[in-house]
Amino acid sequence: MFGKIIIHTDLKVLTGLHIGGTDAFAAIGAISSPVIRDKRTQYPIVPGSSLKGKLRTLLIRSMQQDMDAPEKDPDNIKHLFGSMSPITYSRLQFADAFLKNKDEFKSVNDTTEAKSENTINRTTCQATPRQIERVVSGAVFSECIVYNEENVNETISDMELLAKGMKLLQLDYLGGYGTRGSGRVSFENFDVKAIDSETNTVTIEKLFKDVENYELLSI
Fold it and tell me: Is the pTM of this model over 0.85?
């Protein structure tokens, strides 16, 4: 049996976060770009695919690799995040992150906000108004990442790469509209556990403690 490293962390929203859902059945006058929600509870979620994809993109960009040629990604990226060419199973599993502190928002009875924007036609100067939905700042999502330890000699280097991606994300943004202020997030309260692994988690914990101290913004 392969060993596993279980990483729990809190993903904290620092500025309004927009990860889009579907507006296929939006009523007239409704928000044109809603956030994705858990169908059962109707609270916003952060899909694991969104976090995984953003971390991979930021790491590849930092390595100055061809963004349009994933088959040319370095082997350490392919091992960590998976690949179709050649077929490589991802060592990382990202769970969907669910809202952790929903009770804090009972007084305002909402965990999202509507942000009004305008698109301006440069020729006619005509404004096209729209509203996007954002998860409000201060929302905290519980994220769980599972690492499959396939080569014990590569565990620490893989964790270093993951930690680097998290640092880069805290200097960038998650979701949409990031160049206009949305999507700043930070990682907090890391908890690392090893299952059937001989890897010293103290070293890994130090890596993620450094991530916590790397945030661009704080609230």
Answer: yes
